[in-house]
Amino acid sequence: MPVVFIPTPLRDITAGTAEVAVEGSTVRAVVDALEQRYPGIKTRLCRGDSLAPGLQVSIDHVMTTRGLRATVRPDSEVHFLPVIGGGKGVRCSGTQPLIE
Amino acid sequence: MSKKVHVTTSVNHEPVEFLCEPRQSLLEVLRDTLRLTGAKEGCNNGNCGACTVIFSGVPVNSCLVLAVEAEGATVETVEGLADHGHLHPIQKCFLEGAALQCGVCTPGFLVAAKALLDHNPDPTEHDIRFGLANNLCRCTGYDKIVKAVQAAARELQSLAK
Amino acid sequence: MSNFDYAAPTSLAQATALLEGAHGTARVLAGGTDLIVQLREHLRDADLVVNIKKIPELMELSYGSQLGLRLGASVPCYRIYEHAEILVAYPALADAARIVGGWQIQSRASVGGNLCNSSPAADTIPALIALGAQCVIAGPQGLREVPAESFCTAPGRNVLHKGEILATIVFAPPVPFSGSAYERFIPRNEMDIAVAGAGSWVKLSADGTTIEQARIGLAAVAPTPLFAAEASQWLAGKSATDKTFERAGEFARKAASPISDMRGTAEFRRHLAGVLTRRTLAKAVERARG
Amino acid sequence: MSHTDELYLGKTSYQVLGKRPVRHDGADKVTGKAVYAADVQLPNMAHGKIVRSPHAHARIKSIDVSEAVKIPGVFAVVTAADFPNLESRSEVMGEGGSVNLAHMAANCLAMGKVLYKGHPVAAVAAANVHLAEEAAAKIKVEYEVLPSVTWVLDAMKDDAPLLHEDLRTDSMGKKGDRPTNVALHLQFEKGNIAEGFQQADIVVEREFRTASVHQGYIEPHATVALWNEDNRLKIWASTQGAFNCRQQVAQLLQIPVSQCLVVPCEIGGGFGGKIAVYLEPVAALLSRKCGRPVKLVMQRNEVFEATGPTPGSFLRVKLGATKHGKLTAGEAWLAYDCGAFPGGVIAPGCMCVFSCYELPNARVDGFDVLDNKPKTQAYRAPGATQAAFACEQVIDELAEALGIDPLEFRLKNAASEGTRRVDGPVYPRVGLVECLHAAKNSDHWKSPLSGANRGRGIAAGFWFNIGLASSCSGSVHGDGIVTLVEGSTDIGGTRTSIAMQLAETLGIGAADVLPQVGDTDSVGFTFLTGGSRTTFATGLAAYKLGLDLQAQMQERAATIWECEPAAVEVKNGVYSRNGQSLTFKELAGKISELGLDPVVGRASVSPEGSTNAFGVHIADVEVDPETGKVTVLRYTAIQDAGKAVHPSYVEGQMQGGAVQGIGWALNEEYFFDRKDQMRNASFLDYRMPTCLDVPMIETIIVEVPNPSHPFGVRGVGETPIVAPPATIANAIHKATGVRMTVLPISPPALWKALSEKS
Questions:
Q1: pTM of this prediction?
Q2: ipTM (interface pTM)
């Protein structure tokens, strides 16, 4: 099972547990599985159907741009991290429609 | 708007006339009126040297010269450095020595370096650093600029022989 | 920048007439390295700007071992330190002229302009004070002379009245066994305004052991460039030793009444006044000994 | 990576990479022809001026523009009221981030309150810049002045003046319950620090403070906007990212992105400070109002007072080690200010503070704090330099206390492949150990330093490289020259480093590629030039473009030789099939001669995996004990570049970053008076290093290939600024015995410390 590293500020929900193994082949599935075990954790990680603003996900130590859609292997390690980079300040994907 | 003054001068060895307000700087007229935008405005108060031109034989910050003062003077800008399609040795050495990154301070450095080498053909590293201290560069750390001026000095001296 | 009228007279008489007859504020443009910035940043205003670089005597630089130095008020700094005889006769003046801004500034800025801008931190004024320079002022009523240390009256203010122009700065011929030096402290090695500055002039006994006369000028430690009278007088008759220079530094420290600002604290400036006085005295003595 | 990538990975000999060709844009830049934003001149162009707040914090009671608009030659005046209402969509979601639109707009033109001196309040467009300035002076703004704060710890106090009454501290989705200036509380924990510190034989804890500093690019912000009659908005900008600029402008003005075209001009330096828009939306509003192109150019004091400084910061760092010199635990508490609006660089600060070391137990707390300064922006490895200033001095102190050579101590604890960072992820192959060995073997480190008041310091630095999207396209001309259009704005010669990667892939010369930076209409989306990503990510796109062009050339060759493309062999730019062969140029000639389909290729990438770049710096300094003035006698920068595409420009990045860092260490700072007004908003008093203030900067490039790039390229732009302040501080300690924990280490500060010591 993929192992999720619980961000320190969320360990109030997991009663201090730092690493949790849950089923799931995508980040979305993993988050839903987490929510099953620790109700309330999803609203801390997500905004609607995507990652919360300012968060990015790292799978097996590689930062992915695919957010909740990223795939996870059974032996994967999943980290939720703040965005970084010299480009910090305004980060946006050009592929997204701006005006709904 | 107040009355303009007629100025007759020489820019890059060609006679030039223009009208300007007394408050306009030489830099402003070079860039906006004569469309010679090689000289850059980095600070507009004489501290960065990006607007350096040679004014009647000496290097000046063109932001600290009133355009009206150009009456009867001679002005040399970066646009006048290359000779009929041939780069000046200082320009060549800056290119080959990667002595520029963003390039915005480069015109000022090139003009100041020309003034320096015209004045002192065989400068020490300290002479170069002292002579170029009125020109700020934020990209290169100056290392490659100083080396390019040293290389240009060598090249100019061998050409002189 | 607000707009203004511009004139470039070719004689002192025309210039003083223009200044006296001006409606509103008339400003004199020498090198312009201070004035143009001040007009642009609305620190000063002008209805008329008078360029005095077309007036021959104001661009005059003449030196004779018997006559001394006559320095026109508009002579740019680079002409001073490129003058071989001045380097020998008035080294403190050359020291200062060489560090007013960078080369591009020195191509335009003049010692006269530095005086008339009357900044407490002006680099050339302590050198003028140390060298006992006289300021020749031309006005509607003719010429008058003012010693350099009396020229500035407050930050940015001086003794010039409406219609008056600083014409020439006069230096007495160098006396034997004399030497001078100017040093300032700045955080960088160029381009900064002095945090503090000191200019020293000494005349030694023929054997070079005793200071017969001395004059010390200080910058950026008072509302105006300062003549350190007490220190200067105390030095007369003292032996030219490090101990003496150190003691003179203490007098200079006492004479200082600096302020704290972004360029340095009052405490630091007072300390520097002592250090720089000591250092420039040592250098002046060394030069006096040749 | 596709299977073809492995062809190149780990390859040690290249035809083009590692050579030093003259940059393609060089001639324009040494002759004054290169066009920067302020050089753009359009017919009928109006010139603008911004009206700015004279107060650090005040409520705007009224704005009266009536006098200004009366002046003949004044065309338009705008205020915040001219922005569309953005309250409804304050949050823009985007991969890996978000930005509060209302805040972004309020930073361009203040809404209700001004939050720092220089905060824009209104803007005017007129016939010339002098007239615009006169009109701006006629705009009357009535203020109710409020108490202000500019030091991060003061801003955190319960009774501090509040910038945004509605702000609550966010701790990963959990909101605080009271109004505050603390926008964000981050936390990272690894292992068990209590146990870790118990295992330690020695523990050192110190506090550090750093002043705000500015990126200091020589070109002030400038733009020209033309809102055309066809409703198309065209913007000439000085920006690190044409697409990011377009996106911000479109969002602020609530127009579709495609309605806006951004032309990236040559850019006179950015260092992270030319990402957020300041002038562009305002120029656009003015242009729409007056129906003319409008140019806005900042004066230098506006650049200092109203654009991105890097955070002022307070840091507490505690490290423990065994007597054998092994680190056992680390704890850090970081507070960085973010200026007038939330969203500073505290996160990378926290992630970098211990990133150079194998630390079994660690905890980091970080706070993003508002105060009355301009909104902070990225500055070259944002947040990392302050963190290294603190951590690398504590490391030095530990080494000294243990009697271990500071370089050896770092080697004993250096992060390497497999090291788990405090924020969780594990390093792939990284080059810190190799950099430390290079330092150890350097002529600088081996040469003895003698003389009074002299000392040698060393420090390590770390920064990430981000990935994200890059695009490029190319076409092969009849003479075999390849045009490359790429989307990364070129601040320091990246056109060439990207073109060289295309040339290497195609087996042609660097001069056979003509690179150009496309505008937002002519090239695919490319994320901004920042995060040390351009040579890495856009270079990867150029490599993929090369594979695409090569496959098409292969196919055309097959048509010529009447065989299957697979039967055509390609090696180092030569296409051959049993005996007959054509060089790239010959084949290109044949293709146009025979009128075959032109060869036009494209590539877009969004490389996953931000890689990591480490550096080690060595400095020799001499201190004048009477004045506290520090002279840098000798300086060496060592860095892992993965593969140095154009070594001259890699060295240039290392040298430039080192000198910026030296300025940060010794003199640069925002100097505020009691009214929180910046008193040194000029190059004269801000005091960036001149060439007379620094020695030659020696460089040693280490090459540990990046496993996530076909040529092993790592970004090099940002790491060089991380180590210098710590390196200088460590050298000063060696020279004087004094530990300087506050930046800048200015002469009065060091003189005071020295006099207190004696």
A1: 0.97
A2: 0.96
